[in-house]
Write a structure and sequence with these properties.
single chain, about 240 residues, mainly alpha, globular
């Protein structure tokens, strides 16, 4: 029985609720400092995954082609619109909307970043597939510990909209876990390592974005995860 995605989704949901409720009670210094720490943690996790790459050209090519595809289909723009609708829905239920365009833009930047962090991280995707094949929930449980605190911190500034992310995350992880039964037998350890390395690149870029150092178009890089394994297989076959 697959349980990891439910645990991870519950962690994000509870963290989002707790953070939104405690937003006025949490010291400002913590709200300002912790996102940078989470960003640093994301970058470190990304580095750990990247160094496990088997075929460096596969990782580079996957990121480039995947990012190009994401740009062509305006993937980040689409996710931003979904984030804007989610924010509007939450504001109708919880608080009046803001007319400050800069605040709206900042919200979307942060919201897209945490959507990618929660829904499209290499750890979450690999953990879901790993559980689907082996029944081992350890990867997703470890991710849940980080996610509950990350969601709580971001919810202090973004509100209850953070809790909504638990739903698409759960859907994505359940689909991957169930689909892994058919996908994993077709893969090799090298393909899995290359896939994780591409996920690490996304996590590293996400860390930069969360810290506010560089606003990488992380959402547009998501197709790289889809291309990683096919490109890895083709590379081995051709070279």
């Amino acid at each position: 029985m697959i349980v990891g995605p439910y645990i991870n989704g519950s962690a994000v949901f509870l963290g989002g609720i707790i953070g939104a409720v405690l937003s006025t009670r949490l010291p400002e210094r913590i709200r300002l400092s912790m996102p940078s720490i989470f960003g640093a943690a994301s970058m470190c996790m990304g580095i750990v995954l990247v160094v496990k790459v088997v075929h460096m050209p596969v990782m580079v090519l996957s990121v480039i082609l995947g990012s190009l595809l994401g740009e062509l289909i305006y993937l980040e723009k689409g996710i931003g619109k979904v984030g804007g609708k989610a924010k509007g829905l939450v504001e109708l239920l919880v608080k009046p909307g803001s007319s400050d365009e800069s605040a709206q833009e900042q919200f979307l930047h942060q919201y897209v970043s945490i959507i990618v962090l929660f829904c499209a991280s290499g750890t979450g995707i690999f953990g879901s597939m790993h559980e689907g094949m082996t029944g081992d929930t350890s990867v997703l449980i470890a991710k849940s510990f980080l996610d509950i605190f990350t969601a709580a911190i971001f919810a202090t500034s973004l509100g209850f909209a953070v809790a909504i992310i638990a739903l698409p995350q759960l859907i994505i992880q359940l689909a991957l876990a169930h689909g892994a039964v058919y996908i994993m037998p077709l893969t090799t350890s090298a393909m899995q390592a290359d896939f994780s390395a591409v996920g690490g690149v996304l996590m590293f870029a996400t860390g930069f974005r969360i810290c506010g150092i560089k606003m990488f178009p992380v959402a547009n890089m998501i197709p790289a995860l889809v291309l990683a394994m096919p490109i890895s297989a083709a590379w081995v076959h051709c070279f």
